[in-house]
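Bug #2210: token dump truncated for MarR family transcriptional regulator?
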Amino acid sequence: MGRAGRTDRGRRRRAAHLGRLGAAPPGSDRLRGATHPRHDLDEVIHAPVRLSIMAALSGAERIDFRFLRDTIEVSDSLLSKHIVTLENAGYVNVDKAFVGKRAKTWLSLTEQGRAAFARYTDVLRQITEGATRA
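Reproduced locally. Full output below:
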């Protein structure tokens, strides 16, 4: 299967996942008339571990898997699971290579991932600034 097939499959999985959550993707018509900014939060990023991954990756060009695992204090399997979700959403690139005899996994945000994280943090800012005015 080509890379395009995996990307389409990832989009379908994300849409199915959002449907199970009862969430609408940002900008969808499902929440027409909803005005609270929380409706614009990206459900893919919103999980605490995925938010931690996105935040860590946003501050670097790329990060080693083990460094990220230790930084956000999760197990290899949990980090891998969340990276797959972010990769399927098109937010994270995973590059694997050998350094000497050891396999290394490098993670980085895609342009789409950087844009999604910027939107997510903007929405959080709208929510928190609105709370201080209330």
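Output looks complete on our side. The first helix runs from residue 3 to 21. Marking as cannot-reproduce; reopen if the truncation happens again.
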